[in-house]
Design brief:
The protein has about 220 residues and is of the alpha+beta class. α1 packs antiparallel against α2, α2 runs antiparallel to α3 and α4 crosses α5.
Amino acid sequence: MSEYNDYFTMLFFTANIIYCLAYLVTKMVWLRILTIVAALATFPYFYFQLEPLWSALFWQSCFLLINLINLIVLYYNSLPLDMTENERRLQSLVFRNITPREIRKLLKVGEVYTVDENEKFLGQGQDNSDLYLLSKGSCKVFRDDKEIGYIHPGHFIGEMSFVSNQPVSADVVAEQPIEFVKWKKEDLDRFFIRNASLKQYFYTLLGIDMADKLRT
């Protein structure tokens, strides 16, 4: 019996070494796999005591289940996704550092609109709480009836009023037929409560876009 106890104790120490390795890896998949293996390795030690440690077994089972579910989610997210033309276009223009499924989730919060040539869809002095992302075509920007710039695919529109809650500072007119994604502020806020990492990524892109426009 003593030999078995030594074996289970050795297995328990091995499990803790695996836990340490799990916290050292940088890829989430390997962290999940190693923590699952480590949790399984502790089961014999907790069970084959003079009296099984049911509390420890219960919590290890919870940790194992949580990591297993997350591993399945990671695997699902890694599967190929048949992206739409608009999703592929925005991935190449803007969302290069997130997964296709994350792009789809983000775009589903908004709506896709089209605007005809020479149509004004944002006016100077207009109240606006929405954010637009141009995916096709180009726009002209006018302030006090004077042309001050262009907006090309992959750039946000209405971002200043979206962030500051101030009226729109310029007219935006479609130079040619355009297509864009429109997000309502309240919809994005609700989405980002559940997707905090995407919020940081999204607002970083928005900040970079605003800085580029200020420079030009």
